[in-house]
Write a structure and sequence with these properties.
This protein has helices spanning about 50-65, 70-90, 95-100, and strands spanning about 1-5, 10-15, 20-25, 35-45. The chain is α+β, with helices and mostly antiparallel strands.
């Protein structure tokens, strides 16, 4: 499964994990000059999609660099709405932890 969260982040999966990836510009070795080439790099591996989405929210908030509390709250609300739209569009169903372990 591959789920594009936004232009910079996506979710990939392997047999055991959900993988959060960020699209980053490749830097030239030694000089660290931008090459103009972009590649997805792993941010982290998660056994739970909900935890991955929390990390995604933290990464986006950190990328924004906003410091005013009301700006952070507005951005969190906006991200929550964005995640809901992506999840609905991709037909992802979340199963409550209690139900998943009882079956």
């Amino acid at each position: 499964m591959q789920l594009q969260l936004d232009e910079n982040y996506r979710v990939n999966t392997d047999k055991y994990n959900f993988i959060l990836e960020r699209n980053e510009e490749v830097l030239e070795l030694g000089t660290k000059k931008p090459t103009g080439v972009f590649k997805y790099k792993h941010v982290g591996y998660y056994n739970n999609l909900s935890i991955l989405l929390k990390r995604y929210t933290n990464e986006v908030m950190r990328d924004q660099g906003e410091s005013a509390v009301h700006d952070l709250i507005d951005r969190l609300n906006s991200l929550g709405n964005h995640i809901e739209r992506v999840v609905k569009k991709s037909n992802i169903v979340f199963v409550p932890k209690e139900k998943a372990t009882n079956e």
